[in-house]
Structures are given as C-alpha cells and as structure tokens.
Amino acid sequence: MSARAAAVEALRALELSIGGAPWATDVLRLIPMVPPVGGEPDPLVLRALRFLAGRVRALREAGDPWLDPSFRLFSEAFMLSSEFSGALARGLSLVKPRPGSAAVDVMSCTGVCLEQAAPHWGRLIAVDPSPLNLELVEERLRGVGAANFELLVGGVDDVPRLVREPVGLVILASPSAWLTDLRSAVSRAYSTLEPGGQLLVVAPIEREGLVSPLAPFIVALGGQAPPGRGRFEDLLLAEGYVRVRFREGDLLTAVVATKP
Amino acid sequence: MAARAARLLRLRCPECGRESDVHVTPDTLGAAAASPTGLVGVADYHGDHVMVVYVDGEGRDRGVRVFRALQRGEVVRANPTYLAYMSNIAGFRVASGGWSLEGFAGSPRALLRVLGGGGALEVELRDLARAPQAAAWGERFLEALSRVGQPDLSGLLLSILLLDASMQHPPSPFASRMFELALNVRRLTLRVDPDSADLLSAYAHRVPWLSPRVLEFARRVDGWPLLRVVAAPDPLTMRERMATLLSLERRGVVRFEVTEP
Prior knowledge:
The complex is a heterodimer of chains A (about 260) and B (about 260).
Chain A: H1 3-18, H2 24-30, H3 43-62, H4 69-79, H5 82-93, E1 102-106, H6 112-117, E2 123-128, H7 131-143, E3 149-153, H8 159-162, E4 167-172, H9 175-178, H10 182-192, E5 193-203, H11 215-220, H12 229-239, E6 242-248, E7 253-258
Parallel strand pairs in A: 1-2, 1-4, 2-3, 4-5
Antiparallel strand pairs in A: 5-7, 6-7
Helix pairs in contact in A: 1-3, 3-4
Chain B: E1 7-12, E2 19-24, H1 26-34, E3 39-45, E4 50-56, E5 61-67, E6 75-78, H2 80-83, E7 89-96, E8 99-104, E9 112-116, E10 119-125, H3 131-148, H4 153-166, H5 176-183, E11 188-192, H6 194-203, H7 212-220, H8 226-230, H9 235-250, E12 254-258
Parallel strand pairs in B: 3-6, 6-8
Antiparallel strand pairs in B: 1-2, 3-4, 4-5, 7-8, 7-10, 9-10, 11-12
Helix pairs in contact in B: 3-4, 3-5, 4-5, 4-9, 6-7
C-alpha cells in the first residue's frame, strides 16, 4: 500500500474542487509538478485526502482551518494512517527520552503524537489554538491511561510564554503544524527546549527539487509549500540546532535536531 | 408542634398523560407553611418537560403546571423519587437569578456549597470522600449555567443526573460543555454529517471510547431531539451518551441544531 500513490490520486479530487477559486492558480500550478507514482493507494490516506479535497474550499474561505471540525477529522484519519504512525515512530526512535523532562506537542491537533510519546515521557504538554482540539487530546490521552498531562490553549508564537520550564522534546508534526510558518515554529521550539533537548518534525519534506503530493493541499489551505530537505536543514542549523537527522518514508519525513 | 406526616399524591400529567406518584415529605410541608404564598412546587421529571405540583402546608394538591423554564422567584422541589436515580448525590439545591430548584429526602447532614457565575449549588453527598471532585464538577456546572441564562427545568434536572454520574473522575477544563448541552437539551436536535460519519467509520476502531457501532447509532438518530437521544434508564448511561455525542461533535460528525420546542 502506498501513501504517496494515495496522495497523488487524491490530487484529482482537489483539482476538481477548487476550480474557479481566486487562490486556485498557485495550487493548480503545483499539481503538474508532482511526479506520478505507481502502486496500490493506501485506502485510509486516500479517503482522508479525498475528504479534505471536498472541504478545502470552505476551510480556506473560513480561515484558520485547524479550528474546523472537518480539518480535525481529516487530521485524525491521516495521523492514524500507517504512513504517519510509521514516520512518527521512526522519529521518536531517534529521540532520547529524558527522565523528569516533558514532551510538548505544538499544534497538537488530535493528540496522536502525544499518545505515541506517552510511554516514554513522564510529562506531556499539548499546545493548540483550539480548545476543541485539546478536548480530543484529552480524550485520547485518558484513553491510554496517561495522567500527567497539561492542555494549553495557544498557537506557535505562544509556546515560550505558555511552557514556562524548558522541555526535553518539542514535536511539530500534525497537519495543522504544516500550515504554520516553519521558520518561526523551529525558532520558538528552540527557545522552549532545554540544552540537549530535541525537536521532532514530521512533514512532507522532499529531496531538493521534488514537489510533495501533499504540497498542493497545504497551499490550498493557505499554507506555504514545505521546504526541500536541504533548505530545511539549513534553517535548523541557522537557528542553532545540531545533529540534524532525516528518516524518509513513502510520503513523510521525520527530522530530529538537537539543541546543544 | 406536631410533626407533619408525609403524603403521596397520585396525579396524571396534563402534558403526557403519565401517572406519577409525587411524594410530599415533611420538609416540603414545612417549606409550604413557611412560604409567603403558603405553597411549594414539587417537580416530577418527565424527560422533555417537568410536571410541577403545588402543595400547601397540609399536603393538599393545589394545582399542577407543566414547566419548561424556571421563572424569577420560582422555588421548585424535585420529587424525592428523582433522587433514587443517583448514586453520589443524596440531595441538592441550585439557585440562580432569583429561582431555586432543590431535592432532599430529609434534612441534610452536611452540604457542600459551590458558588460561581452568580449561582450557587449545594450538594449533600452520600460519601464525603467525593467532595473535592463534586466541588470541581459543580464549578463546571455553574459556569455552564451562567452562560445558558434562563434555564430549562428538564435541562437542569438532567444536569444534576450528569453531575452525579461524573464524580468518579476529576473534570477536564472543558467539562462545562457537557452541562451547556444538557441545560439546552430541549432546544437541540441532532444532525449527522454523512461524509464525516463515513470517514470516521474507516478508523473508529482505533479511537478510544468510539467504535463503528457508535456511527451506526448516530446515523439512526439523525434528526432526533437531543433529549430523546440521551434518554436512558440511568445517569451513567446518559453521561456515556453525552460524552460520545460530544466526541462526535468535535470531529464534525454530528452537530446540535437549535430548534425551539
């Protein structure tokens, strides 16, 4: 099953749904740049992205897609796919849990990342601008028996103010996080991390020159096309991170960087 | 002064025709005698409406009204049979905006008092060990009450049942939404988004507290009044249904449409 094949196939639905929108030009320009791919589409990724394609116009026009229940539903479906879970697991395997320290999930959305991190971290913090997203995080964390967690209402820029004590891990992985300004997000994460703490990013980061089939969806929702691998590495190094490691999957890449 | 004896009134509800036994306790007789009007209302919960019987200091039936919303100056007591549904709360009093609703089986030994949002909640607990959680849930209830404004009697009584069923665990910071929904229960109709339900059914087995059967249930009750959807024989089941509906609402699978009763 290929998540990439699913994303490429779902682009047809996206193309059909945005025709005529004043912002469609940038999206329609990107779609032909996505390389074709073979293989059996991953059914959950395909369903989730087709659902998103059907709602993208309304989400874009309402602004702040992460506040909308449809985006929440899409995100949860996508984050429970084996592609996302696999990328997250590969990223978490590169992170060294620090006893007594906390893991923060920024733009936590549905809480899938914290659920997966829960067995290794004593304290979990979800930061999200939507209280309803945080309700979902709570639902999920209680479901796995996690008790030591905090739910904080805020966006990327609020993280240093909301998270008072330095933390061992900052996660930027949910589809809502892809819609934020990555430069600003990694910078805020840096100031939140303790020395030796790590940043984990899961995103559709491609090798330089390639366009991810998720990029048109991100642009359609009002975000920026994700940077290539080289540019993202430069961004992390310029911020002061060291030991930047990439683990590529079919559609998503996990990136782990350390604050010295 | 001789102690007043309890009485049992058998009445037919003018709204639904249901025959109800309304217990008039010695406390109720005392409250009627002490009231400036000489009457006190005893509320019997019938789901989407509440039948209130007015009794005098002798325990005589002085009129029946079907209530929807509490009015300023209204003092209503719940029929003691209502208390039998609850496992943590032995008695309660809610007061806000000049009205009050209470239900006690006798004289309370100790009352936990919670204040907030211009309202007050007093609860007699069966087990005082539950007091910290009862207080925390009570705060959420009062938060919701202050946002809802003029409350609906059946919504208030449903909220007290939910309060009783929720005390096992501490509340989340967002628990007041459950009470907001309950307090508005008579005005809301459930609507299901079929596309969202289809997507959720593809992965519902991987979501805590949900299952594909919940989606079947939601599709079946599409268009039902919320009160009919949450109606259940016990508060725990009502609470479970409410929690499930809120979980579906967060995902956009259901929404609650305001329809005037």
